[in-house]
Design brief:
Blueprint: H1 4-15, H2 17-29, H3 41-45, H4 61-66, H5 69-108, H6 116-126, H7 130-133, H8 141-171, H9 188-191, H10 196-221, H11 238-250, H12 254-266, H13 273-286, H14 289-299, H15 306-319, H16 327-338, H17 345-356, H18 361-377, H19 384-394, H20 405-418, H21 425-436, H22 441-456, H23 471-484, H24 487-498, H25 506-510, H26 515-527, H27 540-553, H28 564-575, H29 587-605, H30 632-645, H31 648-662, H32 668-678, H33 685-707, E1 709-710, E2 713-714, H34 717-733, H35 737-750, H36 802-811, H37 814-840, H38 848-854
Antiparallel strand pairs: 1-2
Helix pairs in contact: 1-2, 1-5, 8-10, 8-11, 10-12, 11-12, 11-13, 12-13, 13-14, 13-15, 15-16, 15-17, 17-18, 17-19, 19-20, 19-21, 20-21, 21-22, 21-23, 22-23, 23-24, 23-26, 24-26, 26-30, 28-29, 29-30, 30-31, 30-32, 32-33, 32-34, 33-34, 34-35
């Protein structure tokens, strides 16, 4: 239905002469659509209504009396024409509004004027990744350093020629005499040195010594009541001194560096801060604490800067052994805090890293205490590197738990949500590792979710992720997969690492599969539980011989592990390996895949000339395992798969062969895991093999235990416990109860319970006294009761000797039973006394040297 206004306009145009002519022309040439779509009539109706005319108007009697009929007729015609003109203009205005609305809608429905490439260019800047944007091409540091060295050497050569002529001219002047040998330092080695900077220092020292001699002579001849200040004599410029210092530091010439600083001070120059800082860097990187403190005391005016305080503390960290807590560095750090000049935040990060590197429970606890103390005293808001370090520490806590995912997620939320800091790839790897090591399926799934978030939530306009998965990321995910026995994920991760698709990134191409990755993969195979069990399914032939075999072995079916038929089945699978998308369904298939992987490692590393079955094309033919170094931990993980899924005979033969084949020495973990496998041998023939195998391993273990060290480190008490407990269990299970009993007595004689009564000394930094100012953390996250003691000697508890106790009860050996009960209670009581003494122990006191060192920064 047409709008009313359009109908009226059409009617008026048809009744007018112009409208009639238009209609005639339109009938000849066709009508042209001048109005928009019908649904746009609302725009015309939205305008103001037209003026209302009174068509029934009649002049008054006065008007009628004054006007003639012709005049009255002309007035009516004129008024009728004005009314028609006003109506026509109003209708035209409405039609124009409709045309404008239709044009606006048509422009809105037009196709976009930007192409896909133009839109992509626009969004590249909008979605640019911060990490990618900061990757500015930099010059090669080695090239820059070499260019700077060449420039410094050219400056030194020019200075040497200048000073050489000055010294030769001064030697002919009789008024300037050289000082005595006792007053100046001997520089014979400097003069005869082939190094140009040493000859320059020798000439400069000669000139400065002559000037000082002349000054002393003039002062002795002048009146003592009048002071004669001397202006500094410029032997070398500041730029020339800086060039010499850089060359000395590059050559690691400590003596020459000290001589440069000495010459500048004797010449009356204010030593620039850059030169002092460079000299402190040389001392700090080498751990020369005495040298760096002498520079601060002799040449530093004012308080040390942040960089200088950092170098001072770093020198103490470097000078301390990695296995020991850097006590002196902590004392200097707290000394700076007490003087209201705390060290920068990266100093705290370096010190906390050093504490975590001690691999001791006390060091880890002190690191957490220092982190909380720093937020209270110095820096309330940590940066991303420090957050990353603390989240990574949650994966290896100082307590007996595997990890602390709750604490790690709290720190992650504080960093990313509360403070809105952009995480780095290292931060993602840290939180993934902390969740993966928990051993809980919930947190392991959270680790994989974070890995997906890492790749998907930080993409640019082209879809490229800011964080490419590195080897550390894959190792962290494998940590979670092996703890829950998720072999499907582990196989997928290994396939991703060795696939050719990872060659797209140069960084990923450099990071191939190494022994850590394969160690995690082998551990996943060891923790995997196949859905199919060979002992649960019996063939018809086996059903016929099963009663006779059960009677011969005098064992029940639920304790049978393997049979000759099963061992042959395992060996047959080793000859025909196959990798499919379905995980192995039986233990034999697990051994088959692991053996194939191990053969490929030996082939790629050159330890083996050819594999046994080259027809397997499931693995790539390229040397994807060339970066795998055959280490003891790799062979131990490979053996652990056979301990779980293979027979004990096969494991024993492999134990004897692989270490000699790869020329790798056995470790304490090798012996302990072999003994613990023998300790869970089941009845029948396997226990006879276990006794023979355990005796062989125990002979090798005793040699290592007598030495008491492994890789220059003392054997851990818990490792010694595990070895002895496993051997006692093997003896008790195989019927050698008397040998097991005498073994317990020998252990108690070598590690008596009395050794447990005395705890380790309590350091001063672990003091629990409440103070507001001191040389230790004021706010702690750990108490002394929560920190385990790493130096507890080996001991035996009743749970460790329970099987032996049962065997003695069956034999009704009352005296032996009484001794077992006594020794277990003795160890338990000694351990309780050690704990009580550790809680009551007072911390050590600071000696005089340490107190003087604390006040060293204040002298600067």
């Amino acid at each position: 239905m047409l709008p009313p206004a359009l109908l009226e306009l059409t009617f008026l145009r048809l009744t007018s002469p112009i409208g009639t002519a238009t209609l005639t022309c339109g009938a000849r040439h066709g009508f042209k659509r001048i109005s928009p779509a019908r649904h746009m009539h609302q725009a015309a109706l939205a305008t103001s209504p037209p003026p209302v005319y009174n068509y029934n108007y009649t002049p008054s009697s006065l008007d009628q009396g004054n006007l003639t009929s012709e005049q009255w007729s002309g007035i009516k015609q004129a008024r009728s024409g004005e009314m028609v003109a006003d109506t026509s203009s109003e209708l035209e205005r409405r039609v124009k509004a409709l045309e404008e609305a239709a044009a606006a809608e048509a422009s809105a429905l037009e196709p976009p004027t930007y192409t896909e490439e133009e839109l992509l260019t626009f969004y590249e800047d909008l979605l640019a990744l911060p990490i990618v944007a900061e990757r500015i091409p930099e010059l090669d540091p080695a090239a820059v350093e070499q260019a700077q060295f060449s420039e410094d050497m050219s400056v030194i050569n020019v200075v040497h020629q200048r000073l050489k002529h000055s010294v030769m001219a001064a030697q002919g002047d009789v008024s300037l005499d050289l000082p005595s040998a006792n007053a100046t330092k001997s520089l014979v080695d400097f003069e005869s040195s082939v190094q140009p900077y040493r000859r320059v220092l020798s000439c400069a020292h000669d000139i400065v010594s002559r000037i000082e001699a002349a000054r002393s002579t003039s002062l002795s001849q002048a009146s003592t009541s009048v002071e004669h200040p001397f202006l500094p004599v410029s032997v070398l410029s500041i730029a020339e001194y800086e060039s010499i210092v850089r060359v000395c530091i590059r050559s690691k010439d400590v003596e020459a560096t000290e001589l440069v600083l000495n010459l500048m001070k004797r010449s009356g120059f204010a030593i620039p801060e850059t030169i002092i800082t460079k000299a402190m860097e040389m001392y700090g990187n080498s751990g020369n604490v005495r040298g760096i403190e002498q520079i601060m005391a002799n040449y530093l005016h004012g308080y040390p800067t942040e960089r200088q305080r950092h170098l001072h503390i770093i020198s103490h960290i470097v000078a301390t052994s990695q296995e020991r807590i850097p006590t002196s560095a902590l004392e200097v750090l707290h000394s700076y805090e007490s003087q209201a000049h705390p060290a920068p935040i990266h100093t705290y990060t370096s010190l906390i890293t050093s504490l975590f590197s001690t691999n001791s429970s006390l060091g880890r606890a002190q690191a957490w205490d220092l982190f909380s103390h720093m937020r209270y005293v110095a820096h309330s808001e940590p940066d991303v590197p420090l957050y990353t370090l603390m989240i990574r520490a949650c994966a290896s806590p100082f307590n007996m738990r595997s990890s602390e995912p709750e604490k790690a997620l709290d720190l992650w939320t504080e960093m990313t949500v509360d403070r809105r800091l952009d995480p780095t790839a290292g931060a993602y790897d840290a939180i993934i590792l902390a969740c993966a090591r928990s051993g809980s399926t919930t947190y392991v799934n959270e680790a994989f979710r974070l890995a997906k978030q890492m790749l998907d939530s930080h993409r640019d306009a082209r879809g490229n992720s800011a964080f490419a998965p590195s080897r550390r990321t894959f190792c962290a995910l494998l940590e979670g997969a092996k703890r829950i026995g998720d072999l499907a994920r582990a196989r997928w991760i290994l396939a991703e690492m060795i696939s050719d698709r990872r060659g797209e990134s140069s960084m990923n191409q450099r990071e191939g599969v190494n022994e850590e990755v394969m160690m995690h993969v082998f551990h996943t195979y060891a923790s995997y539980r196949p859905p199919f069990r060979r002992t649960a399914v019996l063939s018809v032939k086996e059903k016929a011989v099963e009663p006779q075999r059960t009677q011969d072995t005098n064992s029940s079916p639920d304790v049978m592990v393997s049979s000759p038929e099963q061992t042959t089945d395992v060996d047959s699978y080793q000859r025909t390996p196959s990798f499919t998308h379905i995980p192995p369904q039986s233990g034999a298939e697990v051994i088959s895949e692991v053996s194939t992987l191990y053969d490929h490692i030996l082939l790629d590393t050159g330890l083996k000339s050819e594999v046994e079955d080259p027809g397997d094309d499931a693995l790539p033919t390229q040397k994807q395992f060339k970066d795998v170094h055959v280490t003891p931990r790799l062979l131990n993980s490979y053996l652990s798969v056979h301990y779980k899924h293979s027979s004990l005979e096969t494991s024993r033969d492999l134990y004897r062969m692989i270490f000699n084949e790869c020329s790798v020495s056995r470790t304490s973990r090798t012996y302990v895991e072999a003994l613990e496998r023998c300790a869970i041998a089941r009845r029948g023939h396997e226990r006879k093999v276990a006794m023979e195998f355990a005796g062989e391993v125990w002979a090798e273990w005793q040699v290592l235990e007598d030495i008491g060290k492994e890789n220059d480190r003392d054997l851990n008490g818990r490792t010694i416990e595990r070895a002895h407990i496993a051997m006692i269990r093997v003896l008790a299970l195989t019927g050698n109860v008397d040998r097991a009993y005498h073994h317990v007595k020998a252990f108690a004689a070598r590690y008596p319970p009395s050794d447990l009564s005395t705890p380790s000394p309590k350091p001063a930094l672990r003091s629990t006294r409440t103070i507001l100012l001191g040389e230790r953390p004021l706010v702690r996250l750990t108490s002394n009761a929560e920190v385990p003691d790493d130096h507890v000697p080996p001991l035996l508890m009743f749970g460790d000797l329970e099987i032996l106790h049962h065997r003695l009860v069956a034999m009704e050996a009352r005296a032996e039973i009484g001794y077992i009960s006594y020794i277990c209670k003795a160890y338990e009581g000694a351990l309780r006394a050690r704990r009580d003494a550790a809680l009551k122990m007072k911390p050590e006191k600071l000696d005089g040297d340490r107190v003087s060192r604390l006040s060293a920064p204040s002298r600067c």
